[in-house]
Amino acid sequence: MPTDGRNPARRERAQQEFFLPVLCEAQALLVLVMLAELLVMVLVLAEPMAAGFDWSRLALTSLFVQWIVLLSAAVLCGLRPWLAGLNPGVAGGLCCALVVALTVAATGLTDSLRLAGYPSDISFASFNRYLRHGLIALIISALLLRYFYLQSQWRIQQRAELQARLEALQARIKPHFLFNTLNSIASLVAVDAVRAEQAVLDLSDLFRASLGKAGTLVTWGEELALSKRYLRIEQYRLGERLQLDWRINAIPDDLPIPQLTLQPLLENALVHGVASRIDGGVIRVEADYKGGEFILCVSNPYDETACGQVSSGTHQALSNIGARIAALFGPRASLSVDRRDGRHFTCLRYPCARLTQESSAI
To answer: In whole angstroms, what is the distance from residue 140 CA to residue 19 CA?
Structure first.
């Protein structure tokens, strides 16, 4: 059933999930040309040969097959938006019929050019040639379309498994974040009830922003605002002991980042570098985007005498962050921990050259 023309989002999604790739792209054309040449070699080698290899026949067969392949790719590329709205079986059948029709038409054209001056040479044997070319085109196109369909189903399954994995990791982080924040508010109640009430309102706003986003990725601007709300809650409890040093360079506002990524890093720095110290400390946030790669580092003062104090909950959150960025952005994504110059650094980096185009594809 065709997609509704009044729903562009649904139509675009149907085209993205359609099993037939965009055959007019350079990479797809290169693959088709190489496959066509392999087919030509098989066809030429399958026929009885004389003492020497018939290079002329190879060249003419190659020209004939490549002509059909490129013409079919152009036509299917143009019809792809319409075919995407059909049932996959119907669309596949139409694609096969189209390739067969173009093959028969090309055969007829070459025959007309070759026999233009010799009409008496046309015989019933030409019908066998049309049938042979049509069957070859049908078999090859059916095999390719079946391969494309299985590949698309595999990609859909991979995306579904990835989404389920990310949702499971996200579900583990949100309760962890909630429990730690409620503990902060509970400690504030006995000290300043008015600020505790304001902290509850801040927490409400924070969770409205956090839970209201349906997707896994959010923009950098949203994640930064979310984290600042969290820091404001902790500021009520820690007061002047909590100091912040923001070193954020030119970061695009729409740069994609997994939801609740910066907040656990800040929480880790706060627990180990500020709350455990009588004089508090400075949490430094450094972020940069260059060369298509996003780099985020959160550091806090490091006290050698407190190195044995470990929070399993915080380590779980950091482990989840590492798993999420690796799942979303591939093997080049990383989460590292380092200690130098009296500070503890937690840094993550991942490639995102296409910015929000990647978040819409997940």
So the answer is: 17
